Amino acid sequence: MKTKAKTIFLATAITLFALSLIRYPQQSLEASIRGLNMWWEVVFPSLLPFFIVSELLISFGVVRLIGVLLEPLMRPLFRVPGVGGFVWAMGMASGYPSGAKLTARLYQEKQISAVEAERLASFTNSSNPLFIFGAVSVGFFNDANIGIILALSHYIGNICVGIVMRFHGKSQERPKQKRLNHPFSLPYAFRVLHETRLKNEQPLGKLLGDAVRSSVQTLLMIGGFIILFSVVNKLLYMMHITQHIAVIVQYALHLFQLSKELSLPIISGLFEITLGSQMISQADGAELLEKTMATSFILAFGGFSVQAQVASILAEANIRFKPFFIARIMHGCFAACFTYVLWKPLYLHPAAANAHVIPAFFIGYSQNWMNHYWQLLHQFGPMITIAFLCLYIWLITVQWQKGQ
């Protein structure tokens, strides 16, 4: 009975989506172009270097070396192997969905178990600092100080999620899954590095080509999800479904004594974090603290667009998505609470910033640097995207010719 109901629901939903595209073709096209521009200018050129470097580090055994060195930290704190430290760092540096991609890769190479992969994916996916400081705090709120609060709340909240999720799947672990803990030893770590490199002893060109091909394939999938959810978000608004959902959200906001003006921006943010963050920053009638808390929540939640990307990556490796989704809700709550707690001690108006914790020159430098880098991405991002798409097509063509 459940399977039949699911079939009817999915068939009805996709039919309504197709009819909505026919009913609102102009709005759908505009939303699609907006999603494409975001992927084309920012997402692809900013994530591609991290993906390629990560693939090469795994192939050369550097990740195994890092894993041995970080085992004494990651195992007691998060109950994951030391290689999780590499995934955690790369996830914070490059943003969604790098943590999920690297977790899936390590699981496929049998460096972590299924339960460890679920734990690791739950706290290694986060927004990158460039997006938090450059796009949200400087671009949307025009205030670099807000970026400090958002970043601290975001990353401290992620640590709290990791500590909570260490108890996930404890009953599913069997004694034979528990690995021997090696003491901190540089000679042992370098021996592991050498053994891993020997197992993957392939020409550098082959490793580099595989890394580029795998990275571009993942980014093409990510681009598809960004465009899809940009269109879905717009269609829900055009069909007035968003307004009906907003009524329910307003009751929830009232419980926490937050402005009802944030209901529509939060709903948009639940689908796509960039649009939601921009709408929250422009919401009239809401206090700055309320806007910051709402933005912190949706940055941590990730939006259904990001979650769909992660779900696709995890599904390819047969890793369950449910723990990740629960962790995103926890992360959103943690981040919003930390934003409220850190607001008074850390948020400084420009006049106070000159006299207290953060020097004025640092604020100005940070803001100018983030703005400059963000502008460079928008200016040169499309050229980088075109170049690597051409390289990807050439690599696929060469591989196909060899297979003939």
UniProtKB/TrEMBL annotation:
Any Pfam family matching the protein: Gate
Name of the protein this chain belongs to: Sporulation integral membrane protein YlbJ
Transmembrane segments: 47-70, 77-96, 146-169, 293-313, 325-343, 376-398
Domain Nucleoside transporter/FeoB GTPase Gate: 42-139, 219-315
Keywords: Membrane, Transmembrane, Transmembrane helix
InterPro entries referenced in this protein's UniProt entry, alphabetically: Gate_dom, Spore_IM_YlbJ
